[in-house]
Amino acid sequence: MIMRICIQPVGDVNDEILKFLKKKFGEVFGMCEILPKIDIPIYAYNFSRGQFNSTLILKSLPTVEDIVLGVTEVDIYADNLNFVFGEAELFGKRALISLARLRPEFYGLPPNKDVLKIRALKEAIHEIGHVLGLIHCENKRCVMSFSNSIIDVDLKDWRYCKKCLKKLQDRGIYISI
Ligand SMILES: [Zn+2]
Ligand SMILES: [Zn+2]
């Protein structure tokens, strides 16, 4: 089974990260392309918080044949949460991740592209998992475990655990992971 993932840069996004995700998605899901960037919707900005509403950005993404993953550099939040690493439509078509809090510099550490790449991959595979119908997994090593902090992100693998993979396979979704 081949799925096409479309990567949608929202605003200016680091090209090296986009290309890395494209390569990995090609291996895992079959096909991937990077769409021309779109602007961050200004109405999604919350002045009192100094952050963007993740749901509004998610809803601004185009719908494509299979799955679209929005990638943005701005810090995002969702209702009742101080921030989110990403958001997705469960059993839908659209997902979104933010690189803002995946960057080591956010935590006062030196920039590190390799660290950023693997974190972005984990959060992207996690949100795509929601699009494919997966809910959060209690296995802290599984990519579908909920990440409350960057420590949780670093703790988990970028792959789905056996149980989550089985759930996908039961619905006829076979991926190379
Ligand atoms: Zn989640
Ligand atoms: Zn799992």
Tag the structure with descriptive keywords.
177 residues, 5-stranded mixed β-sheet, alpha/beta, 5 helices, 4-stranded mixed β-sheet, Collagenase (Catalytic Domain), binds zinc ion
Describe the structure.
The protein has 177 residues and is of the alpha/beta class. The chain has a single domain, classed as Collagenase (Catalytic Domain) (3-Layer(aba) Sandwich). 32% of the residues lie in helices and 22% in strands. The protein contains 5 helices and 9 strands, in the order βαβββαβββββααα. It has helices spanning 15-29, 54-60, 113-131, 150-155, 162-170, and strands at 3-10, 30-34, 45-46, 51-53, 67-72, 76-78, 81-84, 86-88, 94-98. The strands form 2 sheets. Strands 2-1-5-9-8 form a 5-stranded mixed β-sheet, with helices on both faces. It has a 4-stranded mixed β-sheet with strand order 3-4-6-7. The longest helix is centred in the C-terminal third of the chain and has 19 residues, at 113-131. The protein is globular, with a radius of gyration of 15 Å. The model has no long low-confidence stretch (mean pLDDT 96). One zinc ion (ZN) binds next to α5. Monomer.
